[in-house]
Structure prediction request, 194 residues.
Amino acid sequence: MTVSAGTVLNFATGDSLVANGVLNVNGTSSQPVTFTRSGTSGNWGCVVFNGSGAAGSTLSYANLQYGAEIDVKSASNVTIQHCNITNNSGHGIYLYSSSNCLMQNNTIANLNSNHGIRMDGGTNNNCYQNVIYKTDHNQNGAGILYSGSSGYIGQNDIRYYNWGISAIWGASPSSYWPSSQRNNRITNCQRGTT
Prediction:
């Protein structure tokens, strides 16, 4: 399925978009795709890239507001870039047993106690140039959490979490970045990295 630039998708409370095949959301900087709730209260569900059939999907230049989270479940080569994820009730982006995924140039502004980007399992999941922060400065969760996963983390801006970047349960991400360019900037967090 392809979603064209400028499209607005309205979801009832709890409803989700589940892609068992390839989903390409092709917004542009001047005409982003908008995912939002259909009413004035509550949260809709998730955009889900589900299983091997969703491999190679792209979510690009989209505004996702009042939803739960973006889920990538047992999928590979999913790209999420240039998205604004705001007023969500879950993690901003949640990868589960997924590999070779790229999260780049996204803005995630959380009001809840969950993580900005969470990766459980999988390999080679990369996070570059994202801006991730808590809007209420309550410092819960991690900006980027690698749990048993691997990949590269570079040039992210993370603010107001308990942990800026956290690697647990055998995770092995790398934050190496060429010395000619800046690395991650973590500010106003209780801990920078763990």
In short: The CA atoms of residues 2 and 107 lie 23 Å apart. The radius of gyration is 16 Å. The chain has a mean pLDDT of 91. The chain has one domain: 2-193.
